[in-house]
Amino acid sequence: MAFPPQLIDGYRAFLVSRLRHEQDRYRTLSEGGQSPQTMVIGCCDSRVSPEVIFDARPGELFVARNIANLVPPYTPDDAQRAMSAALEFAVQALKVKHIVVLGHAQCGGIRAFAEETAPLSPGDFIGHWMALVEPAVKAVGPRGQMPLDDYLTKLEQASVVQTLTNLMTFPCVKILVERGKLALHGAYFGVATGQLSVWDASKRSFVPVAADEHARVFASPRF
């Protein structure tokens, strides 16, 4: 099959717009390497791109994405652990100052786990991975008569909080957080609304940010 034409068209647009305006920045990054201050742990979902949501320039974010923006607890063994490797590089080599766990609405991984969807393959890679959500399920409690969408929102957000807890099981993260050299943040993006909320530990809830600007945009919505 041919290389996707949409990607070629996108690259052409990149050449005449962003690359032309940021050519010096790319050259500097190629010569001096990257030094992002923030790592974002996001979901693979194509609707939730951290670089787009945070309007980031090249070199500003170190992004690691996986199904449902999860991080397993610290497990020092010989297994090949992609998220642990990315985290280790961000913290130990790049020395990022912030780690943001970016969850989102309508997460397919969370929904599949909640609805106990049948495995897509004999290996059930998604099912084994999504088992990491179990502590968040216990934190949310039984669904009962709660509407499914409300329950999924609670579970998506609780999973972000659980991932923050899992991050603290990594010695390199825990030490730097306790020394005030690294900060952990939870965030939640509404795909339909475009609203970003951040975790407020003191309130034990997600609080909208830039709410006034968001309200002005939606006063005359274009989508």
Helix content: 40-55%
Count of separate DSSP helical elements? 10
Strand content: 15-25%
How far apart the termini lie comes to 34 Å
Structural class by SSE content: alpha/beta
**Which residue ranges are poorly predicted, with pLDDT under 50 across at least 5 consecutive positions?**
none
Shape descriptor reads globular
Order of helices and strands: HHEHEHEHHHHHEEEH
Q: Let me know the largest β-sheet.
A: 6 strands, mixed
Q: What's the total count of β strands?
A: 6
- Give average pLDDT, whole number: 94
Question: Can you give a write-up of this model?
Answer:
It is built from 10 helices and 6 strands, in the order ααβαβαβαααααβββα. The chain has about 220 residues and is an alpha/beta fold. A 6-stranded mixed β-sheet has the order 2-1-3-4-5-6, with helices on one face. β4 (about 185-190) and β5 (about 195-200) form a beta hairpin. The longest helix is centred in the last third of the chain and has 20 residues, at about 150-165.
